[in-house]
Amino acid sequence: MKFFTILGSYLKMIKGMFTKAENAKMYWKELMTQSVEIGYGALGIVCIISIFMGAVSTIQTAYQLTSPLVPKETIAQVVRDTVILEFAPTLVCIVLAGVIGSKIAGELGNMRVSEQIDALEIMGINTKSYLIAPKILGALITIPLLVVLAMVLGIYGGRLAGSLAGIIATDTFDRGLISNFTPKNVWFSILKGYTFAFIISSISAFYGYNVKGGALEIGRASTTAVIVSCVLILIADFVLSFFLL
Amino acid sequence: MIEIKDVRKSFGDKEILKGVNAVMETGKTNLIIGTSGSGKTVLQKCLVGLYEVDAGQIIFDGRDLTTMAQEDRKELRQQIGMLFQGSALFDSMTVEKNIRFPLDMFTNWSSAKKLARVNDVLARVELEGVNKRFPAEISGGMMKRVGIARAIVLNPKYLFCDEPNSGLDPQTSLVIDKLIHDITVENNMTTIINTHDMNSVMEIGENILYLSQGEKEWEGNSHDLIFSTHDKLNDFIFASAFLKDAKDMRTLELRGIVDNDRNMGDILDGTEDLVMKNADFTDNKQVNQ
């Protein structure tokens, strides 16, 4: 029963975002602010985890492919497909759920507790469309871009680690990268990026917007937002892979 | 003018407002007073539309908020200014941006005109030169003033203040009270203040509504309050022995029994006697009853 109550409130929140903007210029400004905060704010961590995740997958793949019958190019193929299909969208988005999700939930929770949301409501502003919609749109714009960046950096990290560790030469790695390449995988990964971006931003906004109480509840809401987002990302990952691959 | 007609509000099984009736007059400071849990915050939130009432009417100059379409309600809200207990300033914005925010959202004015208006209201609340400071960098009293400035920047017809003096020292509280009162008179606004601050009640209570357990128990002004024989109200307002004595003294003074020129220094240092007219404690006791 509680599940349906929460789902109902969530859907009501989403529906409440679709109203005419009081001032389109202010909404645009807010969208740009959120895009910068979400995208640029998470850029550093995405770069670091992407490079290391690619590097580690190269080393571990090489460690497991011991048979001399398997060509070295296979390492690059495995790294490429793993990074594109799973690591870049899913792993990065799980990290982003922590970074961006807790930020969104914390920010909205603080605004709720300190009556800033009430202040906006009393001014006649639809807070769902002014505060939540730009965050969701900002995430939908920037997170798929971060996923693409993670793909590139992950593969580059794998190539770099393979070369530095003497596992695979760069030209062999490059040959492996282009052999049996399926462009559909990239589109599939970007689709995952959009799905996960919506999950992270809307779930976090939902828990932050509906905080009741004080500082302790803001912390709880952030934690719940991150946990629920991560679980939903994993479920969505399974569903998308099951139906689209 | 805001008319409150038989307003009821419950949360679950708990009935918070049990049919409140009142009239909040234009150009006056209307105070809602009551103990914690009496329903005054819920009433104020119903008045501004943050809570939907279960029954009753809230009529803003002939327009009933409870039956209003969403668009009309949004329009009405642009005529409402509100000062929150914790000021509710946007902490990521400077003082200037906080005050400018309603102008950015609802006007097409030029930047220069907006800045001029921001500076005007800052001057009105005696806070010139703090434009670039963030809320975290100013004192509680200054935050309240910025909150007032933001609330009046669009020249609202209705001003709501929730515990404007909470967390402030008595002197700053008086300044804030005076400011709210003066702004109300200058702009002929309908001002509604939630408070349990005794100073505010006595200083600016032009129309006082006393709530107890969700019901209107008493209505009057600060003058009526002095002579009130309502036990519950007296126990709430004049809670301490000191305040009870002050009420007695003020009653004697207003009845012309005692002269008090607010210069007790002369009396205390012995250069002047306290003048008792018709000094008769029997009369005093009768007044108290």
What does this structure look like?
- The complex is a heterodimer of chains A (245) and B (289).
- Chain A has 245 residues and is mainly α.
- Chain A has helices spanning 2-16, 24-64, 73-113, 116-122, 127-164, 170-178, 183-209, 215-244.
- Chain A is elongated, with a radius of gyration of 21 Å.
- With 289 residues, chain B is α/β, with parallel strands linked by helices.
- A six-stranded mixed beta sheet of chain B has the order 6-7-8-3-9-10. In chain B, strands 2-1-4-5 form a four-stranded antiparallel beta sheet, covered by helices on one side.
- Chain B starts with a strand and ends with a helix.
- The chains are: A mainly alpha (245), B alpha/beta (289).
- Chains A and B meet through α4 of A and α2 and α3 of B.
**Low-confidence spans of chain B: pLDDT under 50, at least 5 residues?**
278-289
Helix/strand/pairing category of chain A: mainly alpha
In the sheet with the most strands of chain B, the strands line up as 6-7-8-3-9-10
- How much helical structure, as a percent, in the residues of chain B? 40-55%
Q: Report the major sheet of chain B.
A: 6 strands, mixed
β-strand number of chain B: 10
Order of helices and strands of chain B: EEEHEEHEHHHEHEHEEHHHHH
**Strand proportion of chain A:** under 5%
Q: Output mean pLDDT of chain B.
A: 85
Main sheet properties of chain A = none
Write a short abstract of this structure.
The complex is a heterodimer of chains A (245) and B (289). Chain A has 245 residues and is an all-alpha fold.
What secondary-structure arrangement, pairings included, does this model have?
The complex is a heterodimer of chains A (about 240) and B (about 290).
Chain A: H1 2-16, H2 24-64, H3 73-113, H4 116-122, H5 127-164, H6 170-178, H7 183-209, H8 215-244
Helix pairs in contact in A: 2-3, 2-5, 3-5, 3-6, 3-7, 3-8, 5-7, 7-8
Chain B: E1 2-11, E2 14-24, E3 29-33, H1 40-47, E4 55-60, E5 63-64, H2 70-77, E6 80-83, H3 95-106, H4 111-124, H5 140-152, E7 158-162, H6 170-187, E8 190-194, H7 198-204, E9 207-212, E10 215-220, H8 222-227, H9 231-237, H10 241-254, H11 264-268, H12 281-288
Parallel strand pairs in B: 3-8, 3-9, 6-7, 7-8
Antiparallel strand pairs in B: 1-2, 1-4, 4-5, 9-10
